[in-house]
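Structure tokens please, single chain.
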Amino acid sequence: MTVEALWEQCFPNDRCYRSNPHVIIRAGHVVSMIHWHRMTIRGCRCAYIFGVATHPAHRGQGLASRLISDLLENLNGFDLAVLVAEKPSLTAFYERFGFAVRGCLPDDGRNVLIKRLRGAGPDEQTYIELAREIKIFEDEE
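Here you go.
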């Protein structure tokens, strides 16, 4: 399975596909993936994480957890990691990695979760602008 095929299977209503994902490959097939994008909001360096997915036949093995942990360990120089929970049930999963709900997207109510990676946290206005940027970023694709 390719990254594109896994994207289509896990996000069938999302036309947004990105290159350069971090993946886990087994027997020549992509079985788990994570994507991220650099953003700077009000001087705050952010890593926007998205497209976290594991093929249904490989779920429950900690693959997505491993990808998230590895990515977080390698985000040197970033102030925040940000993601949007596609489903409310995923919020608790991301909280295990230190993410906290800081708001929701205005159009569909999905939770915006943030993990501080270094330094003092940004002010609330930065969170608001970050949510707007995420929405714009998703709409552009």
